[in-house]
């Protein structure tokens, strides 16, 4: 029987990427280490040798090199560390990490994740029923956002520190929230994360404002209005004042491009099917969270798009950035985003949340809601929790079916891990002999 894949890991990885520079999976000090990257010189590059490949999916091969690129890049971002050695150290002691981080650090789990993503990605690309234009828009948006967040994380990481004084001040100002709980290590790390995110947001805004000042950015006057005119009334001619949304130096964001990004992102975020549904929700945002309300304002979304394009261009042209790592991020972003999008389409009609389930969840978690009445906002929050849980179950089922339909071979990975274990044992024995020799000489 094939081992069950934790597809819940796959569902959340794209979000983990996007906020990796702002939120920590590690409960260690927020300050990031400055260890340099090291080469993986001990890994065979030959795909045809047992040491050269990790898995085979039909005629496709995941090499050991490719696996390690994805594994270490993902975990360095998630744990906010700089070297592969740091990742390996944290993999040996995961007590202070959350469940998500612990799962991702287990290489066998990560290989399962990688296989599942490749299977779904290939299925999506070859599915003629999928809207390929929308799929391409999603890939562009994800690529741009991921590269921007990665670059911002690198540029700002040494500028953000959280002092003991800030922790103590935050704790004292929010005693009611912590319910007089003592200032334990867990509470301290929780506070550090909140302060870090706040400081990172401020630094990010400063960085983007400086970028805008350094570049020539012009926004179409229609975006100074509360609502953008209907798409059918907008010219698609890039050269007309009505045909473009913004100009960034010599680059142009057309109205068509803007609408592609705006409607695609909001349809995914709000889980609706049409542009008209997005427009309806934009008119009545009372039951939406702050993030959703902000994203639905077209002027705000254009500002977001401009900032992402500015940072993306800066990252691509920065010669000090590890381009291999950047390319790995882009590849993983593309694969994961397409997989998520495809799974969402395939499973959305299979997942329903009943009123009885909402009421049951609410009654079982009254302490969490702190006595709040079952308002529409609370109902939507509960529905989302139940939906995510059901989506995880359905995703696992879908992946398991894909695995049975395809030929998957992981013997290369098993052999590789055995070789690594032998190497560690041999190195340990050599160190022990060396220590014994030194001790003998001293005698």
Tally of individual helices: 18
End-to-end gap: 57 Å
Structural class by helix and strand composition = mainly alpha
Helical fraction equals: 55-70%
In terms of DSSP E residues, the strand content is 5-15%
Note down, in words, how this protein is organized.
With 443 residues, the chain is mainly alpha-helical. Helices cover 64% and strands 5% of the residues. The protein has 18 helices and six strands. The protein has helices spanning 7-18, 64-79, 84-92, 99-105, 107-125, 132-156, 164-173, 175-178, 185-214, 255-270, 275-283, 290-296, 298-316, 323-347, 355-364, 366-369, 376-405, 411-442, and strands at 53-57, 60-63, 217-219, 244-248, 251-254, 408-409. The protein has a three-stranded antiparallel sheet. Helix 6 crosses helix 13. The chain is globular and about 85 Å long. Mean pLDDT is 81; it is low at 1-50 and 226-241.
Keywords:
single chain, 443 residues, mainly alpha, Triger factor/SurA peptide-binding fold, three-stranded antiparallel beta sheet, 18 helices, 5% strand, globular, disordered N terminus
Fold blueprint:
Elements: H1 7-18, E1 53-57, E2 60-63, H2 64-79, H3 84-92, H4 99-105, H5 107-125, H6 132-156, H7 164-173, H8 175-178, H9 185-214, E3 217-219, E4 244-248, E5 251-254, H10 255-270, H11 275-283, H12 290-296, H13 298-316, H14 323-347, H15 355-364, H16 366-369, H17 376-405, E6 408-409, H18 411-442
Antiparallel strand pairs: 1-2, 1-6, 3-4, 4-5
Helix pairs in contact: 1-14, 2-14, 5-14, 6-10, 6-13, 6-14, 7-9, 15-17
Summarize the structure.
The protein is 64% helix and 5% strand. It is mainly alpha-helical and 443 residues long. Residues 1-50 and 226-241 have low confidence and may be disordered.
